[in-house]
Amino acid sequence: MRVALWVSLVCLILSLGGYLALTAYEKTLQSEIASMATQAESGENAQELYSQQQLDEQLAQAEGLMQEQIDRAYEEGVEEGRRSILENIKASLSDGVAILEVLRPLYTRDVIVVSDRKFHFVPIRFELRQSELKQENVQVLDSGEFRYVDGEEVLSHKGIDVSQHQGSINWEKVAADGVEFAMIRSIYRGYGSGKLVEDETYDDNMKGALENGIPVGVYVFTQALSEEEALEEAELAIERAKPYGRDFPMVIDVERVDGATPRMDALSRDERTALLLLFCKTVQEAGYRPYIYYNTEMSLLFVNVEELESIPKWYASYNETLFYPYHYDIWQYTANGSVDGIKGVVDLNLCFEPFWDEE
Q1: How many helices (H) and strands (E) does the chain have?
Q2: Which residue numbers in the chain have pLDDT < 50?
Q3: 187 — alpha (psi -120 to 50), left (phi > 0) or beta?
Q4: Beta pairing, strands 153-154 & 346-351
Q5: 354 vs 308: CA distance, rounded Å
Q6: What tens digit of pLDDT does each residue of 115-171 get?
Q7: How far apart are CA 177 and CA 159, in angstroms?
Q8: What is the 3-state secondary structure (H, E, C) of 90-127?
Q9: CATH value of 132-357 in 3.20.20.80, 1.20.1640.10, 3.40.1390.20, 3.40.640.10
Q10: Chain-centroid distance, C-alpha 128
Q11: CA-CA distance, 100 to 103, in Å (whole number)?
């Protein structure tokens, strides 16, 4: 599979190199021919008079020369392209750069997704809202934390998402460490059993965050297979959220589970999308702001992303390169972050438009 990918990559670059070289030669020679014709018609260089037959012969010779130059330029471009791509491949692989990192910049009209050990080239839907984020604005600190900046101005907001996996949290220390928002798990459905379970630390985390001035959102890990189960998840999440008000996001977390066969894998794209929409509609009618959490694989291969466009997104990608084409509001960029007040690792996020300031 890797050999086939590199062959395709080489062909792409060779064609590009040849085309650029050809275009440069063609423009130069066409300019020279046009200049000769103009001089002949205007009477310039009057000491050399040409008949129409002589002019036609010279133009024919010039066109022949141009074709020779074009052929030579194409051959040189092909060879230069071959050398360039091979050197780039060698350098990238020697530096430990993943194949995806080499391929992605070359396919500007597709998103490359690896799923089930296969490379999928998914055409970008340019009619959908595109991401406005700029790669040059992503800043990686010495601590490993990400920020999104414009010059000296920090445009992003630092956040975490937590569940009972983090154990007891000292929210006062979390706030002092600069955390500006927290997404807190409310419930989850077992991907094997299908049992709906309440997160044991939900209330402690909600109270701790809010008491220390940290805006919150709540999320539900779904494995719903039917409308009844999707409604069950939404209604329980709403019931658990009531003591804390309604002025925050309620997220449906849809993802696959590594090394397992989740029950939700049995759904089609249409079925999965319909259940997400039902959850979002239900929580919105209850006064909460619906969000969807997903990653590249889920968004492009397992749901109909165009049907979900109007719903705010919390997107997961553990890569500092901004390759995902569509708009998202929150970026989960690592599962191995560190924050004072939390033992062990924690997910870190950036929020680009603070949801806590929305009306």
Answers
A1: 8, 14
A2: 1-22, 24-25, 29, 44-47
A3: beta
A4: unpaired
A5: 21
A6: 988 999 999 999 999 999 999 999 999 999 999 999 999 999 999 999 999 999 999
A7: 11
A8: HHHHHCCCCHHHHHHHHCCCEEEEEECCEEEEEECCCC
A9: 3.20.20.80
A10: 13
A11: 5
Q: What gap in Å lies between CA 10 and CA 29, rounded to an integer?
A: 29
Q: 């992605």: which residue's tokens?
A: 104
Q: Hey, where are the domains in the chain?
A: 2-106, 132-357
User: What pTM did the predictor assign?
Assistant: 0.78
Q: Give yes or no for a contact between 147 and 333, defined as CB atoms under 8 angstroms apart.
A: no
Query: Cα separation of 217 and 174, whole Å?
Result: 16
Residue (of 159, 292, 147) closest to 215 by Cα position: 159
Which tokens is 353 given? 């438009």
Q: How many residues does the chain have?
A: 359
